[in-house]
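new request in #modeling-help
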Amino acid sequence: MHHSRGANLQAVKWQNRSVALETLWQHQPISRKDLAERTHLTAATVTNIIGEFVAAGIVHEIGPGEPGRGRRPTLLAFVDGTACLMGVNLSRTELSIAVFDLVLNCHYHITHPITTRTSGGAAETLIDLIRDAISASRIDPQRLVGIGVSSPGPLSVNEGVIYAPPQFAEWSNLPLGKLLTQAFKLPVWLENDANANALAEHWLGAGQPYNNFIYVESHSGVGSGIILGGRLFTGSAGVAAEIGHTSIDRNGPRCPCGNYGCVELYSSGPAVVQMIRAAHSAGSPTRLTAVAGAALERLTFDQVLEAALAGDDLAGRVIESAACSLALGIVNAINLIDPQAVIIGHKLNRVGELALAPMREVIQQQTIPQAAARLNVLAGSLEGPVGVTGAACRALSGIFQEPNLLLRSFSLAG
Ligand SMILES: [Zn+2]
């Protein structure tokens, strides 16, 4: 396709702005000189772009940096409290809404049961609850620059539609992106929850030192996200990184995804609960009967994790088994991607080495040796509410791709 020279120049200008904004965010406070070095932009380009950000009131100078050999450079940082982002997380049990500033400090957070209805259906309720959260947080609505929404998949990132995740009927096929954009006149980014959480680990957690890693989490399902070259890898249809739906037993049970013997069937929270119940009814003793009933009828994944940490033998063995099954899926992914690290997020990271040690063993024994040699397997380290933080990160990455959204909100022309 032929582009005019003018259009190309404009595209390059936007691209430079985008790179400068993201690099500034990751390394602030930073001098203009360091920013130029890290972005490979010329000093003049950096000076121009920073001039725009300063004029828009997003970035300011915060005085000299560390003493060096020469003159101490002026450092640049984001201005506190200029712009805000919303993070919205839908899970099978909860609906969480939070307000963050541009550097992702959380200023307000509220969680409702997913079954909450104010009036009408699921989408109308979500809009009401976001409105309530905006007023309860006491932020100036004019400062809101975007909304990130994370949800179990499958979903369409481009269309902003959640398809039909299991046990999520009321949200199926809702054009959530469009509905929220209409209601709030703001850009909305919908993302698979595990992808959003992988991005959060990359920017704020255990993934900060790595540009290539696999993030895996296990709760009501098994989710994962892949960071490649410092970017979220989402595939061509937005369904990449479904490690939970790689098969580890072709003779195993049928999975709702269509495959047989998927990792998720052996390592999700519900799978763990089922395994504990089966072992208990076959005669294995467990202290879990004290909290979950004589037939473990009220058993939850959280209770199993707590019991494993408290030394319950059955809980420990089943968690180890789930971790080993999950590790088999991870081995397949490592052999495909050759990452620097594997990060285990919620909720298995809660039991630490009880899950990580058996996973490391499987990974070391069964991965191509060269890929396993320098691989780190570690627990996710996000603090605070994971789901909404991931959603806010997704919104922020959208803003990095289109810095005009930020500049425009603060009345500077693109
Ligand atoms: Zn499956």
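bot summary: The chain is about 45% helix and 20% strand.
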